[in-house]
Design brief:
CATH topology of the largest domain: Rossmann fold
Radius of gyration: 23 Å
Organism: Ectothiorhodospira mobilis
GO molecular function, one term: sequence-specific DNA binding
CATH superfamily of the largest domain: P-loop containing nucleotide triphosphate hydrolases
Distance between the termini: 31 Å
Shape: globular
Number of domains: 3
Largest sheet: 5 strands, parallel
GO biological process, one term: regulation of DNA-templated transcription
Keywords: ATP-binding, DNA-binding, Nucleotide-binding, Transcription, Transcription regulation
Strand order of the largest sheet: 2-3-6-1-7
Number of helices: 13
Number of strands: 9
Protein name: Two-component system, NtrC family, response regulator
């Protein structure tokens, strides 16, 4: 199986970096292989190397048996290194060597072990700033960032909160065995107006709790613990108001017709070339 490009996902905490990593895995030829995730910031530095690379029996006090590391467990699949910016310098060098040679050595071992794995990294930190401060290796950065995906905060992704909320509601209703079928109008209004400081993670928590606690067939703003009448900053810059309204209208029209350009143009009352120009202006892909 060919080794694909390495990817790095950049975005604030809670923006859904692991969700995207899992999607990259699920849409790849490695989908039937394992998806192994490790948070580099959540494991003490003295344990992280053995977690990643494994160890041989007797490698250190308490190493009573041979143990595979996360990299080996991901063989044939995808390894997701979350918060890669927190990797200690010594481990950065060892990771770089593995990415170049695709061979690991367990702690206490002398034998090279080939591993076929796709590596996806993620961080909420500014890696360029870490490089400038001497805290992250520049050569490792260029190795892991063959493809860089910037994930904006949820508040900047017009229309996404409602779409994601609908998908989450369906999933949680199925998982919890609840007959909740959608959102009330005040819930939709509250979702669209909320700033989502916790990003996708906050949205997941609110929707899951609401599905469990809802008394009716629809989730309300009260179930989400949101106000449909949340104060919004007064926008007096007419160009900005027009641009944001225009972007929302184009996105919603495309969503309503499943990306069909001709039907979306008809809904919006514009020509197809004009719609393509609007899509380019607002960063929307050519769907349909």
């Amino acid at each position: 199986m060919p080794v694909p490009c390495l990817s790095v996902l950049l975005g604030d905490s809670g923006t859904g970096k692991e969700v995207i990593a899992r999607a990259l895995h699920g849409l790849s030829p490695r989908a039937k292989g394992p998806f192994v995730a490790i948070n580099c910031a959540a494991i003490p530095e003295n344990l992280l190397e053995s977690e990643l690379f494994g160890y041989e029996k007797g490698a250190f006090t308490g190493a009573n048996r041979q143990t595979k590391g996360k990299i080996e467990y991901a063989d044939g699949g995808t390894l997701f290194l979350d918060e890669v910016g927190d990797l200690p310098q010594a481990l950065q060098a060892k990771l770089l060597r593995f990415l170049q040679e695709r061979v690991i050595e367990r702690l206490g071992g002398r034998e090279g072990i080939p591993v076929d794995v796709r590596v996806v990294c993620a961080t909420h930190q500014d890696l360029s700033a870490l490089i400038a401060d001497g805290r992250f290796r520049e050569d490792l950065f260029y190795r892991i960032s063959e493809i860089t995906i910037h994930i904006p905060p949820l508040k900047d992704r017009t229309g996404d909160a409602h779409l994601l909320a609908r998908a989450l509601l369906q999933r949680y209703a199925r998982d919890q065995g609840r007959s909740v079928r959608g959102f009330s109008q005040d819930a939709v209004q509250a979702i669209e107006r909320h700033d989502w400081p916790g990003n996708v993670r906050e949205l997941e928590n609110r929707v899951k709790r609401a599905v469990i606690m809802a008394d009716a067939s629809q989730v309300t703003a009260e179930d989400l613990e949101l106000s449909p009448d949340a104060d919004q900053p007064l926008m007096l810059n007419l160009r900005r108001v027009r641009d944001e309204a225009e972007g929302r209208a184009v996105r919603h029209a495309l969503q309503m017709v499943d990306g069909n350009i001709s039907r979306a143009a008809e809904l919006l009352g514009v020509s197809r070339p004009t719609l393509y120009d609007l899509m380019k202006k607002h960063g929307l892909g050519r769907e349909g």
